[in-house]
Design brief:
- By secondary structure, the protein is mainly α.
- The chain has a domain of 95 residues: 2-Layer Sandwich (Potassium Channel Kv1.1, Chain A), CATH 3.30.710.
- It is built from 7 helices and 3 strands; from the N terminus they run H-E-E-H-H-E-H-H-H-H.
- It has a 3-stranded mixed beta sheet with strand order 2-1-3.
């Protein structure tokens, strides 16, 4: 069986190489488009009214409005339009390197404006020697709130 190459073997090799390059180019363009889409989704996620906070590996959702309830707090300053926190996880969530068990009480306080009772906060709060010295808890003292007495 004879095959007509229409030219030398070098021409066929060049055609194969060109085809491979064309396929690689298409793959790279698709990857680039996917990266652009991912970057745009992250930007919308990070700049939108809903905040996605990865606190110590646990993701919390809240609003900019909630974190800005107390404008002088560390959390409010982190998400003001003037200051942009730098670290984000692979999903575009803001990363805060703190204890999520403590943070959930801070977020609940911001949502309800009430210090959680020890029965709700459980051992997390009772383990703390002085909650006002824990990073992120400073705002409680700044607002004149004190934790309820141990029961």
């Amino acid at each position: 069986m004879a095959f007509a190459t229409g030219g030398s073997g070098t021409d066929a090799s060049a055609e194969v190489a060109a085809l491979k390059l064309s396929l690689e180019k298409e793959q790279l363009e698709a990857e680039l488009e996917e990266l652009r889409d991912k970057r745009e989704r992250r930007k919308r996620k990070r700049d939108g009214p809903i905040l996605y906070l990865n606190v110590g590996g646990r993701v919390f959702q809240t609003t900019r409005e909630t974190v800005n309830i107390h404008p002088n707090s560390m959390l409010a300053s982190m998400f003001s339009r003037e200051f942009v926190p730098g670290a984000a996880d692979d999903n575009g969530n803001w990363f805060i390197d703190r204890n999520p068990e403590l943070f959930k009480h801070i977020l609940e306080f911001l949502r309800t404006r009430m210090v959680p009772p020890r029965s709700v906060a459980g051992k997390t709060l009772s383990r703390l020697h002085n909650p006002l010295t824990v990073p992120g808890w400073k705002m409680w003292g700044d607002m004149g709130h004190r934790l309820p007495a141990s029961r």
